Prior knowledge:
Pfam families: EpuA. The chain is mainly alpha-helical. It has one domain. The protein is about 80% helix and about 0% strand. The protein contains 2 helices and no strands. The chain is elongated, with a radius of gyration of 21 Å. About 0% of the residues are buried. The mean pLDDT is about 85.
Amino acid sequence: MSDKYIEDNVLLTVLKTLGKVILFLLFIVLFFVIGLFIGYSIIGDGNYWEVLNQDTWQHILDFIR
């Protein structure tokens, strides 16, 4: 009986930890996109949706190379 409880407790702990990691990664992506919007539209005086355009990123990569 106690082995089943321990297995359930370990599984629950693993699922909670995995959920926290996934939530953390989603927040990182969200804040990155918000930072791109702010940097491109406010600092760079561009349209904030253009930052998601593939041509914009190609221009940035060409500029770096």
